[in-house]
Amino acid sequence: MDSVQALITQIQGLSSSAGDVSRLHSNLKQAEETIFSESARLFSALDQLDPSIHSLGYLYILEACSSGPLTKERAAALVLPISRFINACAVEQIRLAPEKFISVCKRFKDQVMLLEAPMRGVAPLLTAIRKLQTSSEHLTPLHPEFLLLCLLAKCYKTGLSVLHDDISEVDQPRDLFLYCYYGGMICIGQKRFSKALELLHNVVTAPMSTMNAIAVEAYKKYILVSLIHHGQFSTSLPKYTSSVAQRNLKNFCQPYIELANSYGTGKITELQTYVQTNKEKFESDNNLGLVEQVLASMYKRNIQRLTQTYLTLSLEDIANTVQLSSAKEAEMHVLQMIQDGEIYATINQKDGMVRFLEDPEQYKTCEMIEHIDSAIQRIMALSNKLTGMDEQISCDPLYLGKVGRERQKLEYEDYDGVPQKFNI
Amino acid sequence: MASSSSSGLTFKLHPLVIVNISDHYTRVKSQMHPPLTATNGSDGVDNTSSSPSSSSSSPSRSPPPRVYGCVIGIQRGRTVEIFNSFELLYDPSTHSLDRAFLEKKQELYKKVFPHFYILGWYSTGSDAQESDMHIHKALMDINESPVYVLLNPSINHAQKDLPVTIFESELHVIDGIPQLIFVRASYTIETVEAERISVDHVAHLKPSDGGSAATQLAAHLTGTHSAIKMLNSRIRVLHHYLLSMQKGDIPCENSLLRQVSSLLRRLPAIESGKFQDDFLMEYNDTLLITYLAMFTNCSSSMNELVDKFNTAYDRHSRRGGRTAFF
What is the pLDDT of residues A21-78, one digit of tens each? Predict the structure, then answer.
């Protein structure tokens, strides 16, 4: 009882100023074993502490309590104090011991999942991320946990709010992979296919030294989303992909690549038979829903192709070319596409003719000016960041070493001193 | 340590010396930097990742290295002109520069430039230190009054002039003991045609933080921008004045009002819808071209970055550049 009480009074006493807090931090680090052994009694003494003022001490005690085997009763007992703590804790104190904070939050996520109530974890984890991040461009290990909970709880919109931030600092590569993969799935759920494509592309092209299961799954979804969004897929990956990925990804995703090939032929029936034959494979990857969307997008692709050939077309003809069952269905499809902004057309109801129009955007308005202006500002910021990174990597001894070795093989004309802007 | 020198010597410094010293310093500094993979995990990450936020210590901030070398040139009468420099190794055990190497180099330079003498030595740092006097005295047997050229490698954007100082040694009586101390000397920069080309080249390398307008186009646009800003502020003043006249805070001054109204009548009269359309369309076109230019610039720097990254970190990358010709 003595050591517990002593610890509690120490925490209460040393939590006021920054100097005190750092002393408290070192004391707590030394007292870790006592905290672990007395975790049960410390837990009951927690109500003597205020999480917003004594955050560091509270954190240590919580971490000790939440370690150890997880059972339903323990989970139920711990979930509420942890979520209250996350909402109330002080940011500077937390940042002194980020690993403990991260492990408490990860345990919290495990408890919430064990109790089968992922919704309870979404809001606390969002606050936890905002408190742990040093800047909005910082990816913490909590990001993928948060996105996983959003996926399980089906709160896609909250997940989207986190996905808007650009990332430029990552603690662990695995966090990036998981974050982009879950983020891609959330965007697919919200039908934001371009953002999903971007995120999945990041997983596939991220540097990796060995094959990564996350990248393989992401590649499968990437193929499907690219078919839905762009209507085409090319197997060549950009040159910033790691060589490991370039060589091996295709071997793991053979059925999907063949799906993309048969999509490319433009014949619905072929695609349908292919999907039918390989149904179990798609199902085992949990991708069947996406594959059905791919099928649906085939009609859209074909109608879009018609806009390039015809100026006006009757609904009957559309139905026949695209192999839809009736003119009514064709009308529904065209209407949906006009609403989504995928084609520009007008439907004349009297004689069932569809007239395809040009893009009405004239680029004459002030809103367009603001739009382009903000795009230019973003690119300028990006360009500055890129130049900074370029300078940094030019001084990197690893890079300099390799370039130095390669230099001897180059010919005389290569020493022209002009930076090679367009490498062929 | 430094009042200004009273020896009456005029110093002329060539840019070649400055570039040499700076190059020497940069090379040594980038070679001693701890490699990035030591602080990362096993995979390189494409986003630069420094050590995790607060817990572990920052990557080693050892004090910046000091580099040493010799400066050579011609001394004619009261003018000392420093033409060139070469590097020397510093032996920290004896606190002196490598003498044998210095003599060998001196011999070699004599063969090519018979008129050049060793005028002194250089080093880097923010200010002259006590230990430097030791090296200075050691050189005194080659040259009775050597010069000490000091380059300050820390970048200070607020500073307008060069971070190079030239020190001479003078015998001053301090506390009754005659001592050699360093005094600053003023210098001018002297250029040869060949040096002007390289200085021009260096001046056009844009720093990554934007810096000042180095190109003609940027200077022109900056001029236009400041002119427009001034026009804007003046119109604002007039507007404010007229508003307060309207409110009645200031007595109405008719002559001023007449001037304002004649100014307004001289403004362009076109206000039609077609003008707006065409104007906005042309404005948009210009913006789009700027956007395209920025895009191309950004893509090309991205391309370079990716190439460098692949060379540095990807084990079996295909060298996306020129391969050896036979």
Answer: 788 888 888 888 777 777 777 777 777 777 777 788 788 888 888 877 778 887 888 8
Whether residues A376 and B287 touch (CB distance < 8 A) is answered with: yes
In this prediction, residue A423 carries a pLDDT of 40
Q: Taking residues A171-193, what's their average pLDDT?
A: 90
Task: Please tell me the distance in Å from A154's CA to the nearest CA on chain B.
Answer: 30
CA atoms of A413 and A408, how far apart (whole Å): 13
Q: Hey, which bits of chain B come out as E strands? A: 10-13, 68-76, 79-88, 90-91, 96-97, 117-124, 147-151, 164-174, 177-185, 187-189
Which of B46, B208, B295 is closest, CB to CB, to A206? B46
Query: Residue B225: its pLDDT value, please?
Result: 94
Backbone angles phi, psi at B155, to 5 degrees: -85, 120
Residues of B in contact with A176 (CB under 8 A): 45, 47
**Overall fold of domain B10-32+63-189:** Cytidine Deaminase; domain 2 (3.40.140)
Pairing of strands B164-174, B147-151: antiparallel
The domain spans of chain A are: 310-362
Yes or no, beta carbons of B284 and A409 under 8 Å apart: no
Helix, strand, or coil here: A68? coil
Greater model confidence, B14 or A408: B14
Q: With a cut of 0.90, is the ipTM above it?
A: no
Give Cα A150 distance to the centre of its chain. Answer: 12
Could you tell me the fold of the domain covering A310-362? Arc Repressor Mutant, subunit A (1.10.10)
Helix (H) or strand (E) holding B57: none
